[in-house]
Specification:
This protein is α+β, with helices and mostly antiparallel strands. It has helices at about 5-15, 35-45, 160-165, 180-190, 200-210, 215-220, 230-240, 250-255, 265-275, 305-310, 345-350, 355-360, 385-395, 400-405, 415-420; strands at about 75, 90, 95, 115, 145, 150-155, 290-295, 320, 330-335, 340, 425, 435-440, 450-455, 460-480, 480-495, 505-510, 520-530, 535-540, 540-545.
Length: about 550
């Protein structure tokens, strides 16, 4: 670590009272207002901010999961070797299917036409305002440069703004290849805010009744309706500075409420400060030193971490110390998600768990370990002691407001998490592979950007997409082909692609904003020319979609 970074981190952490986090630093260039915070809250929870309208900022940062992504337990990135099921796999966040800026789907390395998964877990955004820089490698710095002009917009304390704009143009997380801020601006000028959300909190409803469009919301927040990247960042930063998880049992205990923590939590707190040495890096009240450390979790060459930015040898494969507040709500731990949750029994048996990594003094790569990291067994710390520490972290550092989605951690239900995905039914007739549809865009009334991806066969070829308004279950058999749809119409497509990869095409199918379409069921089946299939034709399963 450099002396400057150490001093900045120390100064930031000492700004709050010991027992409370206090108020985070607010950049001079971005003073908070209720209107700006509300605009940021609406933007944060609007899936329409992503290219295909399927991912919001909040998709990967849910308060009830500790500000992290509940999907990481099932979502895997194949890691540097590009092969799933090997030791370097990473538990990340599902983003978007590979696509161009015009919405045409395009296969990506390692994922094909499945949703891409990020190469690191989503760090918590609760309490993120107290960090001097953000992302696991610290690349979101305090100086925020306007993404459209390149000029400094915030000189100091703007890490939240720096971080907030990156996913919006990331072709893995929220964007298509080549997406621009003009594309984002065009989208926000046209859509109804939170049109896809369900169970919108009352404060957001009130704001949208007064200002029912994004230009009006930007005017309320900034004085005129202009939408630009810097204003999007300013609003998202202002909102996230309100997410302060400082009403934990530990906070109440520090205020003198001796009964706020259980005896087990108190025992864990004593170990945390004592022989377990947790506070070497997890300084209260943030429970992070805001610095980077190498725990040797995986071989350094797999992910060089902070070294990519700093080029400091001591920061090779080093990552930021996360806050432990609300860590008990997170489904996976560490930057690569290798550790199971704190309450998972696998904490005892998995060598990559937080319990075992700290107890044993690091992970598999011991070549550049941080000097703070030593085997706790050398200090007489036992597995039972570590379980007690984890009891303290899991419960005494959890803010019940975040856990229960209470203000300021309240939010709408995202459409992607409250509306069932299309039902896939019946059996396919595979060739090189079974044909399938890419159905990630929401089938919502008024989604003029709705599109279906078609995939199958080997490289270029012909595909027939059939559709109708009734399914056939069980399937009708026509020769060797199963038919899952009572066909009302069909479309012929020319599949693109290279030999050795799935052929693919995209059908752009705008959905009118017509109330009469709500709950309309449409059924699809794809047939693809494939020399490896019986009779030279491969068939997909049936796809049931409802407009809703």
């Amino acid at each position: 670590m450099t002396l400057l970074r150490f001093c900045l981190a120390t100064a930031a952490l000492l700004t709050g009272l010991r027992a409370q986090l206090g108020q985070p630093f607010e950049p001079f260039e971005n003073p908070s207002t209720p209107e700006k915070v509300m605009l940021g809250k609406i933007l944060f929870w609007d899936e329409q901010l992503s290219a295909d309208r399927s991912v919001a900022c909040g998709t990967c940062h849910l308060p009830e999961f500790g500000g992290a992504d509940p999907r990481t337990s099932q979502a895997l990135n194949p890691g540097p070797d590009g092969v799933l099921g090997t030791d370097d796999d990473v538990h990340g966040s599902p983003g978007v299917v590979g696509q161009h800026a015009d919405g045409t789907f395009a296969p990506t390395a390692g994922f094909g036409l499945d949703r891409q998964v990020t190469g690191r877990t989503a760090p918590t955004n609760l309490g993120a305002a107290f960090h001097t820089n953000l992302f696991w490698d610290g690349r979101a710095q305090g100086q925020f440069d306007d993404p459209e002009t390149g000029m400094p917009a915030i000189l100091f304390g703007g890490a939240l703004e720096s971080q907030s704009v990156a996913p919006i143009l990331s072709s893995t997380e929220m964007a298509g290849t080549g997406r621009t801020w003009q594309d984002v601006r065009d989208r926000l000028e046209q859509v109804k805010p939170l049109a896809l959300a369900r169970n919108v909190p009352l404060d957001m409803q009130a704001a949208l009744m007064q200002d029912p469009s994004y230009p009006l919301l930007f005017q309320a927040a900034f004085g005129d309706p202009a939408i630009d990247a810097a204003r999007v960042a300013f609003a998202l930063g202002a909102y996230q500075r309100t997410l302060i998880p400082d009403q934990t049992p530990w906070d109440l205990y520090q205020q003198g409420q001796s009964g706020a923590m259980t005896s087990a939590e108190k025992g864990g707190w004593q170990l945390f400060q004592g022989s377990a040495r947790c506070n070497s890096c997890h300084w209260d009240p943030l429970f992070s030193d805001d610095l980077v450390h190498n725990l040797g979790l995986r071989w350094g060459a797999e992910d060089v971490g902070a070294y990519a930015l700093s080029q400091l040898p001591e920061e090779y494969a080093a990552f930021k110390t996360p806050t432990l507040r609300n860590a008990g709500l997170r489904p996976r731990l560490f930057h690569n998600g290798q550790s199971p949750a704190l309450d998972d029994p696998a904490q005892l048996t998995d060598p990559g768990s937080t319990l075992n990594v700290y107890l044993n003094g690091g992970g598999v790569d011991q070549s550049n370990l941080d000097f703070f990291l030593v085997p706790l067994t050398a200090f007489g710390v036992t597995t039972a002691d570590m379980q007690l520490v984890q009891t303290f972290v899991a419960s005494a550092l959890t803010d019940p407001r975040a856990q229960n989605r209470l203000p300021p951690f309240d939010h709408p239900d995202l459409r992607s998490m409250s509306v069932a995905p299309p039902r896939v039914y019946g059996t396919p007739l595979p060739g090189t592979a079974a044909p399938f549809l890419v159905d990630t865009a929401p089938t919502a009334p008024g989604n003029l950007g709705f599109r279906l991806g078609l995939a199958g066969g080997d490289g270029p070829g012909l595909a027939l997409l059939t559709f109708g308004f009734q399914s056939i279950e069980p399937a009708a058999q026509v020769g060797q082909l199963p038919w899952h749809v009572d066909v009302a119409d069909w479309r012929l497509f020319l599949l693109e692609g290279q030999a050795g990869e799935l052929g693919h095409a995209t059908w752009h199918l705008p959905i009118p904003d017509d109330p009469g379409l709500v709950n309309l069921g449409v059924y699809f089946q794809l047939f693809v020319g494939d020399a490896q299939a019986p009779g030279g034709i491969a068939a997909s399963r049936g796809w049931e979609m409802f407009v809703r």
